[in-house]
Structures are given as C-alpha cells and as structure tokens.
Amino acid sequence: MKTKNQYIDILAAQLKELSAEIDVLTEKADNAAEQVKQNAAADLEALRAKKAAAIEKMKELEESH
C-alpha cells in the first residue's frame, strides 16, 4: 500500500505530465488550421479538467491527517 507522500508524489508527477501535454497542445493549436484548433481546444479542456481534479485531490491529501 502506498503512503500518503508516495501518492502525492505520483499526483505531482501526473500534474507535471499534464502540464507538458497542455503546453504541447497549446503550441500546436497556435500553429494549426481552424478545425485542428477546435479539436485541440476540446483536448485541452479535457486535460485541464484532469489537472484540476488532480490538484484538488492533492490538496485533499495534503490537508488530511
């Protein structure tokens, strides 16, 4: 069973990966045709939602005793 700190570390790594994916997609969207921009926007929204959920979970874990 993972400890709280191990779980926080895993979430932090996932957040870092999600941020990198968001950066890549943002750059692609900035240089892409309109249809691709719309598709990338949907992907970005989904990734940002995942990131927000992970941040919230990490906060809950950090605040728990």
Walkthrough of the structure:
This protein is mostly helical. It has one domain. The protein is 88% helix and 0% strand. It has two helices and no strands. The longest helix has 30 residues. It is elongated.
Using DSSP, what is the number of strands? 0
Distance between the termini: 17 Å
Order of helical and strand elements: HH
Q: On the 0-100 scale, what is the average pLDDT? A: 89
What's the gyration radius in Å? 15 Å
As a percent range, the share of strand residues is: under 5%
Fraction of residues in H or I helices: over 70%
Task: Profile the largest sheet.
Answer: none
What is the 3D shape? elongated
Q: How many helices does DSSP assign? A: 2
Assembly state: single chain
Q: Runs with pLDDT <50, length 5+? A: none
Keywords: Coiled coil
Coiled coil: 8-64
